[in-house]
Design goal:
There is one protein chain. By secondary structure, the chain is of the alpha+beta class. The protein is built from three helices and seven strands, in the order ααβββββαββ. The chain has a five-stranded antiparallel beta sheet. α1 runs antiparallel to α2.
């Protein structure tokens, strides 16, 4: 049977624990959104550079700028994979990693809208961006970009590790303080 003091300590632990878990969930979600926003911004910058390069090419043929496009991406965003489709869905330029991904979603970009999603390629998670490329006020190409989620996943694992250590430690310290430790022994009786 719990004493009144024991019941108060358990109630405080329960409320404090729920509060810590609530804060942890909020921090986890906001950190994940922040990390995804950073990754999305990198993909958007890469897409803008590729769009400018495609607009600058006089004939927009595969042979004229394939090497330059791959070099541009490799020098500035080495982890980003990309594929360029024409408005009929034919592959113009393709990274070998994206070759296994279905290009069926390219039609969404013909409406002028872009799409972000999570995809899995070769058993690895990627953040995916689908974006139309307008040249002379017409959508001429569809650009598909994918960046690995390894950085986001590593940040989230570190955060979960921190929570796994900090929350139980905080609850243990709260219980010990609530028990009024005297000479190393708990002065409250829980049984």
């Amino acid at each position: 049977m719990l004493t009144i003091k024991g019941k108060i300590i358990l109630a405080n632990l329960l409320v404090f624990g729920l509060m810590l878990v609530g804060f942890a969930i909020t921090i986890y979600r906001s950190t994940r959104e922040s990390e995804l926003a950073k990754l999305d911004a990198r993909l958007q910058v890469c897409a803008s550079k590729l769009q400018r390069e495609l607009e600058d090419e006089p004939d927009n043929e595969e042979s004229s700028g394939t090497h330059e496009l791959f070099t541009l991406v490799a020098n500035t965003f080495p982890e980003v994979k990309f594929r360029i489709l024409d408005r009929w869905g034919h592959v113009v330029i393709e990274d070998s990693t994206l070759a296994t991904y279905s290009s069926s979603s390219w039609q969404k970009a013909l409406d002028g809208s872009s799409e972000k999603a999570m995809i899995t390629l070769n058993r690895q998670r990627y953040r995916y961006l689908l974006i139309p490329v307008e040249i002379d006020d017409r959508i001429k190409f569809v650009l598909q970009l994918a960046a690995p989620m390894t950085g986001v996943q590593a940040s989230m694992r570190r955060l979960i590790t921190l929570f796994s250590i900090a929350i139980p430690t905080a609850l243990l310290l709260t219980a010990l303080v609530g028990c009024n430790i005297n000479s190393g022994y708990c002065s409250c009786s829980i049984y």
